[in-house]
C-alpha cells in the first residue's frame, strides 16, 4: 500500500440517527483508516444533527443546521481544514440540488443511488460533473464485490463468449406489511411518489439490477417490456415487477423485482448464460462465484485465491480466502475507488473517467433511463420500449471507467 | 397395500432401442411389481421392435410390426390375456392417432407429453376420452414427487394465502451444440416443426412448467406475454423463451425456458410467493421443499416425514426420509395413480376424473393451449394474449383429479 | 443391453409385512425387469407369509412356512422352475444359518448387512462361499451409487494421490426416543444384543462406513481407537461412537456414528483428503461429487455426464444428468451386479470374485472384524487395537472384485 | 448508541508490512469509528516500523524501535495523549513478556491467540491480570459472530437440552506444500517449535475449536484422546490431528484439525447435537445458523432478524438481514466488547470479568491447557488425559464473562 501524506476529510449530508444507509457509508469509509469523518448536516432536524455529531466525534462547529450552510461554510474554510468530499445519503428527491451545490463549490461527491428524482436532473447532473471535472461516485455497492469484479473480467475478455440469456432478480419482503403506516421511515419515503420518484421498487432495486448486469457483461439494455404490480391497498408505486429485456449484444433477459416476496431478505442474484460459459452470483453469499460450462464439471470460484483470480478481484480483497467478506467490505471498495480518484486530484494528476473503479454519473444516467422506460412500458401494457444508453449525451459512453463494447 | 388379484398387463408403442423415454416408462412401471410388461410395437423399424422385445422378454407373438396391427390383434385376444393399457411414447406428431385407436378399441392409455401435435387434436382427444370413459393419463411426471404433492396441499388449503408472484424456469443445455446435425435422435425431432409441432422448447419444457404451477397453486394462467429466441443458425423453432404471465387469482409470474443454457442439466425450479408463505422446489434436489415465511426462520421440509407431511405426500413415498428418491420414483407414482384408476375399471367401480391422482386429458389440453398462446404472443411482438382454461369445452374444469378453485 | 434368454428367479427369506428392507430389495430387483420374484418365506409367522405372498403375486405353493422348508422344497423343483438365488433380509442373528443352508443346496445368495452375528460365523461363511464357488453378494448398497464408483476410480488410478485424512460419518436420530419400548420393530431388534450382535449402531452403520471408505480408497483400516456411548437409560448397546482410525496407506481418519443425532435423517457422508485432491460425497445428495484441489476452483461432478465420468460410473446410471437418482437405483445396481454374476454361472462361464461388481463375502468379513475390534477398543478405554484384513484367511484379499493395493 | 466523550487511543505491537493479522486488528478497530490508531512498534525491524507508521498515519514520534521503548515512553506521556490499550499481534513466543510489561505499566491489553507459548506463562498471566485488574481481551474472534452468540443463548437457556455429541473441525490447506521453505512468513514461525510452541496446528486452530465449543455450550472439555500426524517431511509439529473428547456435562465429541486438508480454506465448522435440538454453524457461511429438531422441519436462522434472535445476537449486527457480514465484522465485535470494558475503567465503574462480552484470560488458559493435554495424549499413544478447567487457579471459573454451568 502506498503511503498518502494524509487521510482524506469526508463530510456527509443525511445519515442522522435512525437512518440506515448513513451508517453504512461511514463504516465503509472507516474500514481502511484512510478517511477522517469531519463534518456533516445529518438531518433536516438540527437537534438530530447535533446528537449525531456528538456520537461521531464531529466537532460542534462542523455540524451544520442545513446543507446550504454546510456547503457555504466548508468552502470558506482553509484548504487544509475543509472537507475533500461529501457523501450524500438523503432521499432521492433532494439528491440533485445537494450534489449540484457541492460540485459547483469544488467538492467531490459520493452519492447514494438511485441518482436523481427524475431524468432531467440526471441529464443535468451529467453536464455539471463534466463541466466541473470533479469526482462523482454513485454507490452501486454490489459492483464492489471482488467476485463481481472477477466476473466482469470473464465477460470482457471474451472467455465466456457472447451473452445469450440473463436472469437478474432482486427480492425482498420489506413491504410485505403496510409498514409505511406504522412509521417505518424508509418505507414512508420509498412508497411516496413525491419523495421516491416516478417508480417504486424499480428505482430502489431495479437500478441495482441494471447496473450489475451492465457492469459484468459490458452490455446495455436496449429494449424493455415490463409488467408492474401493486398488491397492497393504498399503495401507488409498484411493489413488484416482471421485466423482459434485450441486450445490446443480442442477448435476452428476465428481471424480476419484488419487495413483497415473502421471506426474502436481500435476494439480489444474477445468472448469465453465454456461448462458452455461464456464471451465477448471489449477493447473499458473495464469497462464491459459480461457473458452468457445457459438458464440464461446475466450478466454484472462491474469493481470495490469488492463484486464479484477476488482479482486480484480488486487489479488492482484504482477508484471505475462507474468511468471509460481506456487504460492508464491498461498499468500502467503492469508497477506496472514490478515494483514489480524489487523491489523484490532490496530486494534480486527475484520473480520467475511464480509469475510475466505481460507478459514475453515466451509470446513474443509464439507471434512471432504464427504470423510467420500464415504467413507460408498464403503462403501455407491457409494450417493448427502447432504452437509450449514455450516448444520448454529448459525452461518450463512459460508464464503469472503461469503454463499453456497445459501439 | 391392498392385494390385487393379478398384475396389470401393459403394452407400449414406441420406446425401441436408442430411445430414452421408453426405458423410463418401463422402469417406472416395473418398480412396484404391479405391472407385467407384455406387448409392444417399439419402433417404426420392425427389426428394432424384434430386438427390443427379446431384451424385454416380450414374446415374439406380442411384438407387433405396426401399432395398427397391435391395437387390432390385442383387441382380439381373450380378456385374460390382452393388455389392460398401452403406454404411448412416440413423438408428438403421432400421439393423437395412436391414442384414438387404442381408446376406441377399449384400451386405457398412458401417454407422454406434450399431449398432441396441435390444438385441434387436443380438443378432439378430450372428447374421445369423455366418450369412451376410459382412463387417460398424461405423464407430467414432476407432479409425482411427494413434496410437490405436499406443496399442493399448502396452497389448496389456504395455508399459504393468495399467490402473488411465481417463478418457474426450466433450463437445459441439450441444444447448445447443433446436435441435431450430429445424429442425436431426440434433438432431430425436437427441432423439426413437422415432428415437434408449432413450438419448440416451449412444447417440451413449457408444458411441464405450466402443469407444475397449475398443479401446486390450483390456478390457471389466464394471460401470457412471451419473447422467443433462436440463437443457433438454421434452427426454426425457439430454443429459449422469456415469458410473463398472469394467474386466475391475480398473481403474476415469470417463466423462463431455455435449452441453450450453458451448463444447465434439467433445471426445473419453481418458487411461489404468496401472502402467508412461499415455497421453493427444485427438480434436481427433489427431496427438499423450502418454505419461507415473513419474519420467521426458513424451513426445509424433508421427504418422508410422516409427522408433518400430508397423507398424499407420505403415500407417495417408498423409502424413509434421508434415503433419497428421484426421477424414476416420481414417474412411478404417476403409474401407480394410473394403475389404481385402471383397476377401478376392472373392479367395475370406475373412479371419477376428479378422483384421479395423475394428470388428465384436461391438463394436456391446458398445456397445449398455453404453449400455443405463448407462441402467438411471441409472433405479435410480446403482446398479452388470453389463455383459455379447460372450461372452453363442454366438460367442466377437471384437471388433476379435483375441482379447481378457479371457478 | 445384452438380451438374456430369460429373467432370473428370485426368492426371499424375511421381508414380510411391516418390514422395511424387504421392500427395498424387491423394488431394487424389480426396477430393470430382469428378475422375477417367485418364492419366499417372509416371516416367522406363516400367516404373514401368506398375506405377503398374495400381495406380491407369489403363488401359494411357493410361500413357505419356514426357510428350512423353502430351501428343501425349492431344491427339489425342476431346474427350470426353482429359484436362481435367494435374498436374505432377516435379522443378523439368523443370517449365517440361512445363507449356509441355501449355499450348500446350490443357491446363490444376496444378503443384507451386517453379514453375520459374530466373527466365527463370518469366517465360516467365507469358507462356505469359497468351497461352493457360488455367488454371494452383500448389499452394502451405497457402493452402488454411480459417483461413489467414479470416486473409487479417482483413488485407484492415483489421480488423487496418497490418502491423508478421511472423515466418515453416519448420523441418524432413529433412536432418539425409546422407540423400542413403543413397538418399533426395527428398533426392538437393533437394540437387543441377542438379535443385533455384540455391537449396536456400529454394526448397523459402522459397517457401511468401513465398506464405503475401503471401496473408494482401496485401503483397509489397520488400527482403531473407539469411544462408545449410550445416552438413553436401559439401552445396552452403543447408540453413538467416536472412532479414530489408521489406514493401510498411512492415512488417518475419524469415524463418527450416532443414532441419537437430533434431526439427522440418513446422514452418511464421506470426505477424503489426499495429496493431490479431495472428494466429498453425501448419501443424502448422491447425484453430486465434490472435488477439491489445492489452489484450484472447486468442482462439482454431476451424475450422468458421459463426457467426463468413468465407464463404471456411466454404466451404473439409468437416466440423464439432472434427473436425480437415489437410494433405490443404487440398490438396484448391486442387484444388477449380482445378476450378472449369477448369469455367468448359468452361462457356465462363472466370473471370478475379482470380477464382481458388488460387495463380497470378504467385504463382509472385513466389516465384522472392524466393528468387533472397535468394540474391543471401546471396552479397553479407547486403546488402539489392530484390525485384520481379509488376508487372515487362506483366501487372498479379494474384496470388491479387484485386487487391493494394500499388498 | 451512547455518545462517549472521545475515541479510545490504540497502540500495536507487531503487525508490520507483510503481516496479515495486524491489518485485521486495525480494520476491526477502525470499523465503528470509536478508536484512534495512535502508536506502535510494528516489527523487530525498525525500518519496517517506520514505513508502516507512515502508511497508517501514525506520527513518527509514536513509532517505536522496540516494544520496551514503546511501553516506557507511552507510560510517560500525559494521560490525555497516551494510548488506552495495546493490541499484541506478535508470534506466540513473545506474547507473555509484552503483555506483562504493558499490564504492569497500566495499559489494557488486546491479544491475539493462542495466549502464550507455554502453560506456565498462561498461568502467570492470569495472576497478572487478576492483580492489575485491567482489561485483557483475547481475540478468539469467532465468538464475535452474531449467530454464534445466538447459539450460545439456545444452549445456556436450556432450550436445546443436554449436549450429547459435538463435532468441531478446522480444516485448511495452508501447509499443503512446504511453504515454510519458500519464505511464507506465517508458515515459517508456525512450523517452528521455538516460535510456535509445543503444538503446531492444535495451537493455531485447536484453541479456536475449544473456545468456540465452550462458548456455545457453556461446558468444558474434561478429557482428551488425541492422534497427531505429520505428513510432510522435515516437519516437527503436527499438521493434522484427530481428537476424541468428553464434556463436563457428559457429552462426547470429535475434533478434527488439519492444515493439509487439500482444497479447504478456513473450514471451521461446529455441530452440536443435544437432547432437544441440534445446531450447525460454519464460519465460511456465518450468516446462517441451522437448527434441527426431532421430527420437525429443519430451520435456517438468518442473521439480522430482530423478530426471533436474541438481543445479544441483534446487538452484534451492523447491517440488515440479507446483507452479509463476515470475518471483519465479527472481529470488530470483539473490539467493541473490549472497548466497552476499557471505557468502563475510564468512567471509573470498571466492569467485572463476568460482564465481559469477549474472551478473557481464563479462556486463554483453558485453551492452553486443552492443547497441551492433547499433545500429551498424542505422545502417550492416544491415552485419555484429563484437562483442567480454569478452576485450577485461585480464581473461579470466569470465562466468557459469565459463570459457567459446569459447577
Overview of this structure, please?
- Four copies of one chain form a homotetramer.
- Residues 394-407 of chain A have low confidence and may be disordered.
- The first copy, chain A, is globular.
- In chain A, the strands form two sheets. A nine-stranded mixed beta sheet of chain A has the order 13-12-11-10-6-9-8-7-14.
- In chain A, strand 11 and strand 12 form a beta hairpin.
- Chain A has helices spanning 21-30, 46-55, 67-76, 92-104, 119-132, 146-156, 185-190, 193-196, 201-217, 311-314, 327-346, 361-379; strands at residues 8-13, 35-41, 85-88, 108-111, 136-138, 163-171, 221-229, 240-247, 252-258, 267-274, 278-282, 288-292, 298-302, 385-386.
- The longest helix of chain A has 20 residues, at 327-346.
- By secondary structure, chain A is an alpha/beta fold.
- The interface between A and D is large, with 44 and 43 residues.
Amino acid at each position: 500500500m502506498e503511503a498518502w501524506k494524509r487521510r482524506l476529510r469526508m463530510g456527509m449530508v443525511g445519515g442522522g440517527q435512525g437512518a440506515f444507509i448513513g451508517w453504512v457509508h461511514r463504516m465503509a469509509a472507516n474500514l481502511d483508516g484512510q478517511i477522517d469523518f469531519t463534518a456533516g448536516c445529518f438531518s433536516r432536524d438540527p437537534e438530530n444533527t447535533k446528537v449525531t455529531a456528538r456520537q461521531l466525534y464531529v466537532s460542534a462547529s462542523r455540524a451544520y443546521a442545513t446543507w446550504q450552510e454546510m456547503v457555504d461554510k466548508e468552502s470558506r474554510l482553509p484548504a487544509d481544514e475543509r472537507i475533500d468530499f461529501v457523501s450524500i445519503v438523503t432521499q432521492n428527491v433532494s439528491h440533485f440540488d445537494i450534489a449540484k451545490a457541492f460540485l459547483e463549490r469544488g467538492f467531490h461527491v459520493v452519492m447514494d443511488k438511485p441518482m436523481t428524482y427524475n431524468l432531467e436532473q440526471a441529464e443535468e447532473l451529467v453536464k455539471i460533473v463534466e463541466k466541473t471535472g470533479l469526482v462523482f461516485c454513485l454507490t452501486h455497492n454490489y459492483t464492489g464485490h471482488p467476485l463481481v469484479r472477477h466476473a466482469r473480467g470473464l465477460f470482457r475478455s471474451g472467455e465466456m463468449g457472447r451473452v445469450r440469456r440473463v436472469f437478474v432478480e432482486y427480492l425482498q419482503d420489506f413491504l410485505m406489511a403496510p409498514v409505511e403506516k406504522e412509521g417505518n421511515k424508509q418505507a414512508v419515503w420509498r412508497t411516496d411518489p413525491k419523495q421516491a420518484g416516478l417508480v417504486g421498487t424499480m428505482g430502489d432495486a431495479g437500478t441495482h439490477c441494471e447496473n450489475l448486469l451492465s457492469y459484468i457483461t459490458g452490455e446495455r439494455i436496449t429494449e424493455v417490456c415490463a409488467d408492474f404490480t401493486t398488491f397492497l391497498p393504498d399503495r401507488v408505486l409498484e411493489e413488484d415487477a416482471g421485466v423482459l429485456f434485450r441486450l445490446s449484444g443480442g442477448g435476452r433477459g428476465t428481471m424480476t423485482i419484488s419487495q413483497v416476496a415473502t421471506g426474502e431478505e436481500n435476494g439480489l442474484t444474477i445468472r448469465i448464460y453465454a456461448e462458452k460459459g455461464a456464471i451465477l452470483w448471489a449477493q447473499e453469499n458473495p464469497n462464491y462465484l459459480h461457473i458452468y460450462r457445457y459438458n464440464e464439471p461446475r466450478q466454484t470460484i472462491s474469493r481470495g485465491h490469488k492463484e486464479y483470480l484477476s488482479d482486480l478481484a484480488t486487489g479488492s480483497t482484504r482477508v484471505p480466502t475462507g474468511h468471509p467478506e460481506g456487504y460492508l467490505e464491498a461498499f468500502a471498495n467503492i469508497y477506496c475507488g472514490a478515494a483514489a480518484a480524489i487523491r489523484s486530484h490532490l496530486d494534480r494528476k486527475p484520473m480520467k473517467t475511464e480509469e475510475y473503479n466505481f460507478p459514475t454519473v453515466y451509470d446513474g444516467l443509464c439507471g434512471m433511463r432504464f427504470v423510467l422506460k420500464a415504467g413507460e412500458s408498464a403503462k403501455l401494457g407491457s409494450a417493448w420500449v427502447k432504452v437509450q444508453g449514455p450516448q444520448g449525451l454529448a459525452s461518450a459512453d463512459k460508464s464503469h471507467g472503461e469503454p463499453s463494447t456497445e459501439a
